[in-house]
Structure formats: C-alpha cells, structure tokens
Write a structure and sequence with these properties.
The chain is α+β, with helices and mostly antiparallel strands. It has 6 helices and 27 strands.
C-alpha cells in the first residue's frame, strides 16, 4: 500500500468510525482499523463484532493498492499531534508501515487484512426505506433516554421502529415512562418493524452531520445497515417482540393541565431538591387555575413546595411522580407549552405538546404515577 493523504482528512475519517473500536475484546484484531485502498478511495472499517462503522476517504495520490489492519490508538494519537499537511503512508515488508510528513516520520506495526473478520450485512430479502437525516437524529434524541437496562427483557433496551404505510413511529420505554416520536415523512409499502439497541442508536445519532440530507436503511430479521454521505453503519438488531405500546396510551384522560414547559421543569427541579433521595417522589396538587408542586424527606426534615399558575380543567386531583423521570421527559421536549392529561392518581399521565405546537412537535410521552 502506498498513498498520500491530508492528515486532517484522515483523522476526521478515523474519528467518524472510531466509536466502533472496542475498549476490551477477545479478538485483538478488532483493536485495529481496516484500511483498504482501491484507486483514489481509502475505505476505513472499525468493528466490535456487534457494531461496524465504515467510511470512504478520498486520497490525494494512490500509487499502490492494498489492505492492512492498523492499530487504532497509535494512528489516532499520532494524527492528533500533527498540524494539517500531506502525509504519506507506505507499507514496509510484512509487518510495518511508515507514516511520513514534511519534517519527520513514524513507523508503526500493521497486521494482515485477512485476519480481520468479514462484515456481514443484510440478506437479499432486506426491506429498505429512506429516512430524512435530521428527522432520524431528532427521533433518536427524543426517545433513546427512555430505553431500559433490563437484562431479563432485552427487547426493551432499544428503540422500536414501527414503520407503517402512512407514518413511522420511534418508541422507547422502561415500563415507567414511554416516549413516542412520529413522523409522516417516512412511509413504506407494507408494515414492518425492528428494534435498534440504544448503543448503536446513540452512535448513529452522533455521527450524522447537519449537512446530511437522507439516510438509506436496509434491514432483515437480524441486522440493519445505515448508509449516508459515504459512511455505513452495520449492527445487529435486538431480537424479540416489542410490547403493544399503543394499547397503553391513555385515550380518555379528562383532567387536563396546560402549562409552560420551562416553568414546570424549573419548578420540579427546585422542589425535587427536598425529595427523598430513594424515591425522588414529588406531588402535584391540581385545582382550577393552580398547580402546587411539593416534596418532602421526613428522615432529614426536608420539605419544599411551590405554587404556579396554570390552565387546568377537571376535578381537583393529587398525583405523585418520580421527579427524575418527569424531568427527563420535560427536558427532552422542545415545545414551549405542554398539555398533561390525567385520569386519576393511579393511572398513567399523558404528556404532549399543546394544540398550537402539535404539528411541529411530534413527541408524546406517558408517565406512570409514583404511588407510595
């Protein structure tokens, strides 16, 4: 292999895929990047066997094609210390390669490309769809925090992509809260679905740039492939059946609170300082025109309450929530005004944007009460 490439371009490409390099692995070869040079295109692959990232970098000159596995930590540490300039990479014999720049050079080891495991994609029966990139980023960001860490039910540890003929909904739940993000920009000829684990979902969200327009998705029963702007991500899907989430979305909650989202969020944060650290319990006392938020920790003689004005229609109601869950939901909504709909103190509350912002805010949440 023999090529010349801008050091900054190489570093950028490596950092784009480095998130797939494992910190610990029984396969030492996976601690390397796979470099594959063909013509003026250098394909760089990183994998932890569950998640694979691949990107293509244009080189300045290519004199000799080839494939090698390059130690990830060494090459990144070297490039981070170099100012942007042309860099020449040349293999030396069977076990080392030279990186040379204007004022110096470095010799690093490499390993045979044949030792790198083959990357399996999706089968010929894979289903395909195109997702607007920023909708995908927004959807993952709006839901990933609500996923579970349940070892017994791994199907709850990811985002459920519910693809229908007129819309697509991303769903996440940990059994205490459930978040749905729906977009009408993604449709399919027939209904289908898959569960994307939270780790690759977070990686995908972080590597989609603001200039990316669309993401092509192909998936089968076991794997999914995301393609965008010269980058490819392959990962295994979570196997299992996702619960029928639509069945738990309240339809007839008749007690309705309308309030400024930021005002409620800041109030909950202030009052929760005095909540019991084990339960994080806060209480809402609702009556016409007023919401009182309170918390106490009898063990440490702590208590706090705050009254705020609001629009409320319904019967007087007292209901408790886990403050950390409510704060998460309110922090991850972007609307100015929210609506909370209640049935009674023991049933789930529905949280969604106000009617004025329903078109621009495509998220709704369900929060179970904290009964103590």
């Amino acid at each position: 292999m023999k090529l010349t490439i801008a050091s900054s371009e190489l570093l950028k490409g490596l950092l784009d895929v480095a998130k797939a390099i494992p910190s610990k692995t029984p396969l030492p070869i996976l601690e390397n990047f796979l470099f594959d040079l063909k013509g003026d295109a250098l394909t760089v692959t990183a994998s932890d066997s569950e998640l694979t990232l691949r990107t293509v970098i244009k080189v300045d000159t290519a004199e000799e094609d080839g494939s090698i596995a390059v130690p990830a930590r060494h090459i990144i540490d070297l490039l981070k210390e170099l100012p942007d300039q042309p860099m020449k990479l040349v293999t030396l014999g069977d076990s080392s390669f030279e990186c040379s720049w204007a004022t110096g050079n470095s010799v690093l080891p490499y390993f045979p490309a044949d030792d790198y495991p083959a990357i399996k994609g999706v089968g010929e029966d894979a289903r395909k769809l195109t997702f607007p990139a920023q909708r995908l980023v927004e959807g993952i960001g709006s839901t990933v925090y609500a996923t579970s860490d349940d070892e017994i039910r791994p199907n709850m540890n990811g985002i459920f992509f519910d693809i229908d003929t007129n819309s697509t909904t991303l769903v996440a739940s940990d059994a205490h809260k459930l978040i749905c993000y729906t977009t009408g920009d993604v449709k399919a000829d027939e209904k289908s679905s898959f569960i994307l684990h939270k780790k690759p979902a977070s990686v995908l969200r972080s590597i989609i740039g603001k200039d990316v327009e669309t993401v092509d998705i192909a998936f089968d029963a076991s794997s999914v492939v995301f393609n965008f702007a010269g980058t490819m991500m392959v990962c295994r899907l979570v196997v299992g059946k996702y619960p029928k989430y639509r069945d738990v979305i309240p339809q007839n909650n008749s007690n309705i609170l309308k309030i400024d989202r930021t005002l409620l969020l800041n109030t909950v944060r202030r009052v929760a300082v005095c909540a019991n650290k084990a339960s994080n319990h806060i209480k809402f006392d609702l009556k016409e025109g007023q919401l009182e938020v309170s918390a106490q920790d009898l063990g440490f003689a702590l208590a706090a309450y705050e009254k705020i004005s609001c629009e409320y229609s319904g019967t007087d109601l007292s209901i408790g929530f886990k403050s950390t869950f409510l704060t998460e939901i309110l922090s991850n909504l972007s609307c100015n005004t929210i609506v909370m709909k209640f049935a009674d103190p023991r049933r789930a509350a529905l949280i969604l944007p106000s009617e004025e912002e329903a078109e621009s805010e495509k998220v709704c949440g369900i929060l179970m009460p904290n009964v103590i």
